[in-house]
Structure formats: structure tokens, C-alpha cells
Automatic annotation (TrEMBL):
Residues 218-252, 399-474 form a coiled coil. This is AAA family ATPase. GO terms for molecular function: ATP hydrolysis activity. It comes from Candidatus Enterocloster faecavium. The keyword Zinc-finger does not apply.
């Protein structure tokens, strides 16, 4: 997920202000009290909302702190984000009596239900607590080194034992108990007894009907016809489903302007070739300095032609020269003319390649926009396009297979209909005049229907009981595993934080370890260094590594949230800050937002030619 832009109608001291953020690094600069913390809190509020506390707590809660200063009552705003290729606009009102939340899917052009699942997807599976303790990163703000060590240990302890881990044992156990009560309510304990009684009645009726006085073929004919009818209905439904499936497939193919497999393959091959040509043209344009060579040749041509003109005007400069004036003027004119032609050729070649690249770019963008809804020209976009074409090819094959299956089904249905007609003719020949037999048959049919219903009930009882047994097993297993899951979380945290610490410290430390007593050590080639022996700046780097590692572990894995730093580098000297910024720009592929009241972050980024967007408040 990344933040595109936002609008604050009224939030704290900020009124009717808009802010935009680029996909990579963003530096939000402002003096103290300019509103950086207000903007930071607004982003958090748009994602998780802001509830007004009750009683004494309401006097100093976030809701009261960030109520609009102008008392206009406009306590709201909106924020546009991109999540998994779709753009959503989140609109929130924070007013206590009207906390409205709307989510508009701008990609699909419709308003989505603001469900917990959708919010969980946008927030990458983070709760508000996990958000505040992972990707929203502030300064440790400890007065002493000892205080910083204590803060860091407390943070790791919370991660190791709290609900920030993916599995919440208490909630899961309560949910399983609730599910068990619901399943127990679905059981029908009398179903087995009723089923046995009905089966006994059926056997009694069948014995009576099978006596010599009722011997006839009506029952078998009816049963056969009923079976044929059921079989025919199943085949008809299967055929209708296949027809609908094939129609949907054709509609999807037609919507993508394809008719068959060959047209898809042709489009894919043409697009890949076009992208290859575009990449080659762009590479040539980037590597070949046509403008510089053309300019140099043009200057040389002007100098040569100008020199020839000057010598022609002042021939006395060549008095005593062994070479005659016409030869010199002819040579300089020819050389100047050649340089001029070469300059024009370079300029024309550069324009030609640029126009070719633009034409190929327009065609590629049109194709990608048509099939992906995205005009981004990149290898990732082409991979997505090939994946889309592969899906369409598989869809085309499925449609072809459905059509072949339809032909076979039509033949089966025709044969069944013919057999059903024959059975009807035989049934019409049967004459039954005994009213008692009809009554018995009706009663038998009713009993069979009841038996089928009871049989389904018994099957459902077995299924429900299996689920109850599974819930009981899950409860026992979850209880036994909860301790080992909690203990193993520290190992995962060690591994992930160690992968990050080398980049953040610029290779000074390659890894870190957290023991069972939550003591933190930095690994060096010769020994383990306790964090009490490192500087405050290094501790802050360790703190950053642990938070980033925790963020990686607790997010859902399909997407990542932006990293937000709020004056997080106060204890960093210029070298540490330079190392951290360069590492962040290369290691974290998603959006990064840095709130700061200092200009050195922007200066270091500019000096090291690291792309970023500067947002001023």
C-alpha cells in the first residue's frame, strides 16, 4: 500500500490543505509547531479512526487534541491510497455523533463496503497497535543510554509475548468455543430413531406390495421413469451450466477483443516484439549522445566556415605561405561542409530514434492500458501482461473444452429423452384399478421421501459432530502449541533483524542476537557486544532494525505499508544518517515518509543523488 495524496478539511491547526506523496522517498519538512505531528496523526486517523474517550480521559485524548482550532465543526478529510494495483479513496468524519466512513474504489468506479476485510487488506493486516509499534517510527527519546536499553528491551518483550504475533490465542479460543455452541445447536438427536422407524414402515409396505395380488410392473416403470427424469434433469442442468460457462468465457474473450487462441498468441508475440524494439531504441537513445555530437560538429562547421570566410576577407595573413589561398579555402570549406552535414545527420538520427521510441511507447501504453488498465512501461508490466495473456489462453482452451463437452451432453440427453418416452409408453399400458394399492404406493413414496430427508439429517449430524471433534482437537492443539509459538517468535525476530542491521549500520555490525532473557548483543567477528556498550546512535539504529523486522513479520505478506519516520534520526550523526538514508532508499521498495524539522535529510539526499520528494508544511 502507498499513500498518493490527501486533503484535510479540518484537523487540528490544518484547514483545507492538500498534500501529495511520491512512490519512493518523501521528506516532509516544517519548523517546530508547523503541523508535522498533526499530518502524521491524520494519516493514522484515516487508517484506524479516532475514538473519543469517556470521562476524564476525554480531556487529553487524541480526539480532543486534534479537534479543528477554528471550531468550524468540519472535523474530516480524505486520503487516496493504492493497494494491490487498485486505488481507493478513504473518506472519514471524526465528529463524535457522525463518524462516517466511506471507501471508494476509483479503479472500479464504485463505492465499496467499508468491511473489516477490506480495511485489513488496505492496512496490510496491521492492527492500530502493530502500526504504532512497527512502521510508524519515532525517536526513542530516552534521557540516558540506560533508559534507551530499557526501552528497547521492553519493546522486544512486547513483541515476543503480545498479540502483535499473527496468532491471538485468546481470540481464537473464544471464537472456537462460539463455533462449538452453534454446531451443537444444529444437532438433531431424534433423527436416528425416526429414521429407523421410517425404514421399518418402508419394509412393511414393500412386503405388502410384493404379494401376488399386487404383482405388476407399475412400480418398476415409475421408478425407472423417475430415475430417467432425475438423470435427465441433472444432464440438463449440467448442459445449462456449461452453456453459461462457455458464454461467460466468450464474453470475457470478446471484452478483451479476442476470438480464439491464435489471436491471443499473436497479440502476445507482437507486444513482446514491440516491447523489445522499444527497449532497444530507448537504450540507443540513452547511450548515444546525438545532441552533443551534433552540437560539437555544428560548432566545428561554423568555425571552419567562419575561418574560411575570414581568410577570404583578409588574404594578407597567408602571404609567404607555401600553400595557395584557394587550396586552403577549399579545404576549410569542404571540411566545414562535411561537419555541417554530419551535425545535421546526428540531429536527424536523434529525432528519428526519439520519434520511433515515442511511437512504440504510445502503442505499448495503449495495449497495456487496454488489458491491464495501467500504462507503466516496465518489465514488471510486461510480466503482468504475459500472465494476463496466459490466463486468456487458458480461458480460450476451457471454452473449447466446454463446447466439446456440450456436444457429448446433447447426445446423452437425446438418448435419455428417447428412453424416457419409451418408458412412458410402457407406463400408459399399465392399468391399475385397485385403490388400496394406489394408497399404499403413495404412502410408500411419502415414507421414502421422509427417509431421504432423515438420511440427509443423519449425514449432517455426522458432519457437525466431526466439526465439533475437530474444534476440540484444535483447542487442545492450540493450547499445547501456544507456548512454543511464543518462544519461537524471538528466533524469527533475531533472524529478520540481523538481515537489516548490517545495512542500517553500514556494515559495522553484521547481525544481532536476543537471548531468552531479552538481552541484546551485537555480533562482531571477535565477540558479542552488549548494547549497553554501544553508543546512543547505534542503539537507535538497533531500535530501527527491530521495528522494521517486526513490521516485516506482522504484515500479511501480500503487500506492505509505507514506512513513516517522525523525527526518528535526531540521535544520528551525519555519517549514520547518510548510511541509513542510502540503505533505506535501496532496501525498502515501498513508500517512505520522513517527517523532520531539520534540512539535513534533504541536503544529504540531494548530495548523494538519491531521488526524493520534498513536501513543505
Amino acid at each position: 500500500m502507498r499513500i498518493l495524496n490527501l486533503h484535510i478539511s479540518g484537523f487540528g491547526k490544518l484547514q483545507n490543505q492538500d498534500f501529495s506523496f511520491s512512490p519512493g522517498l518523501n521528506v516532509v519538512y516544517g519548523h517546530n509547531e508547523a503541523g508535522k505531528s498533526t499530518l502524521h496523526t491524520f494519516i493514522r486517523g484515516m487508517l484506524f479512526g479516532i475514538e473519543k474517550q469517556r470521562g476524564r480521559a476525554s480531556k487529553n485524548d487524541l480526539y480532543s487534541k486534534y479537534e479543528p482550532w477554528n471550531a468550524s465543526g468540519t472535523y474530516e478529510g480524505w486520503m487516496r491510497v493504492e493497494s494491490q494495483g487498485e486505488i481507493f479513496r478513504i473518506e472519514r468524519r471524526f465528529v463524535k455523533k457522525n463518524q462516517e466512513l466511506r471507501i471508494i474504489n476509483e479503479t472500479l468506479g464504485r463505492e465499496e463496503e467499508a468491511s473489516a476485510a477490506l480495511l485489513d487488506r488496505i492496512r496490510c493486516g496491521l492492527t492500530e497497535t502493530a502500526y504504532n509499534n512497527t512502521i510508524s517510527i519515532g525517536q526513542l527519546k530516552c534521557a540516558t543510554d540506560g533508559g534507551m536499553v530499557s526501552e528497547l528491551r521492553n519493546y522486544i518483550a512486547n513483541l515476543n509475548t503480545s498479540g502483535s504475533i499473527a496468532l491471538n490465542i485468546t481470540k481464537a479460543s473464544a471464537y472456537l468455543k462460539s463455533q462449538r455452541r452453534q454446531l451443537e445447536a444444529q444437532l438433531m438427536p431424534q433423527a436416528a430413531l425416526n429414521y429407523t422407524t421410517v425404514l421399518g414402515e418402508i419394509r412393511k409396505l414393500e412386503q405388502e406390495i410384493s404379494s401376488p395380488e399386487y404383482e405388476n410392473q407399475l412400480s418398476s416403470c415409475r421408478d425407472k421413469k423417475l430415475q430417467l427424469k432425475q438423470h435427465l434433469e441433472e444432464k440438463q442442468k449440467e448442459k445449462e451450466n456449461l452453456i453459461q460457462k462457455a458464454a461467460r468465457g466468450k464474453q470475457l474473450l470478446a471484452g478483451s477483443q479476442f476470438s480464439d487462441r491464435s489471436s491471443i498468441s499473436s497479440c502476445l508475440d507482437q507486444t513482446k516484439e514491440l516491447f523489445h524494439n522499444y527497449e532497444e531504441t530507448r537504450s540507443i537513445c540513452q547511450k548515444s549522445p546525438f545532441k552533443i555530437r551534433g552540437l560539437l560538429l555544428g560548432i566545428l562547421a561554423v568555425l571552419l566556415l567562419g575561418g574560411a570566410g575570414a581568410l577570404s576577407a583578409f588574404p594578407q595573413f597567408l602571404q609567404g605561405s607555401p600553400v595557395t589561398l584557394p587550396v586552403i579555402l577549399g579545404g576549410m570549406g569542404a571540411a566545414g561542409f562535411v561537419c555541417l552535414m554530419l551535425a545535421l545527420f546526428q540531429a536527424a538520427k536523434g529525432r528519428s530514434l526519439k520519434k520511433k521510441m515515442e511511437r512504440e511507447s504510445v502503442r505499448l501504453k495503449d495495449i497495456l492500458k487496454q488489458h491491464l488498465g495501467d500504462c507503466d512501461l516496465s518489465s514488471e508490466a510486461m510480466d503482468a501482461f504475459e500472465k494476463r495473456m496466459g490466463e486468456l489462453i487458458r480461458l480460450c482452451d476451457a471454452v473449447t473444452q466446454s463446447e466439446q463437452t456440450l456436444l457429448s451432453l446433447s447426445e446423452e440427453i437425446a438418448a435419455l429423452q428417447k428412453e424416457e418416452d419409451t418408458c412412458s409408453d410402457e407406463l400408459e399400458k399399465q392399468q391399475r384399478t385397485q385403490w388400496e394399492l394406489e394408497k399404499k404406493l403413495e404412502h410408500l413414496a411419502a415414507c421414502k421421501t421422509q427417509a431421504e430427508a432423515l438420511k440427509k439429517t443423519l449425514t449432517e449430524n455426522e458432519r457437525v459432530q466431526e466439526e465439533i471433534d475437530a474444534i476440540d482437537l484444535a483447542q487442545d492443539t492450540m493450547t499445547s502449541l501456544s507456548t512454543s509459538i511464543r518462544d519461537s517468535f524471538g528466533l524469527y525476530l533475531n533472524k529478520t533483524a540481523s538481515q537489516l542491521i548490517a545495512g542500517i549500520t553500514g556494515g559495522i555490525y553484521s547481525s544481532m542476537s536476543i537471548d531468552q532473557n531479552l538481552n541484546v548483543f551485537m555480533n562482531t567477528p571477535t565477540r558479542l557486544v552488549p548494547i549497553e556498550q554501544v553508543s546512543s546512535g547505534t542503539m537507535d539504529q538497533i531500535y530501527l532494525a527491530v521495528r522494521l523486522a517486526a513490521a516485516k513479520l506482522v504484515q500479511n505478506g501480500t503487500d506492505t505499508m509505507p514506512l513513516i519516520f517522525d523525527d526518528s534520526f535526531t540521535l544520528y550523526d551525519d555519517d549514520r544518517l547518510k548510511t541509513a538514508l542510502k540503505w533505506l532508499a535501496g532496501a525498502y521498495q515501498n513508500q517512505i515518509i520522513i517527517f523532520t524539522c531539520h534540512q539535513r535529510e534533504a541536503q544529504l539526499l540531494t548530495a548523494n543523488q538519491i531521488p526524493y520528494q520534498l513536501v513543505r508544511i
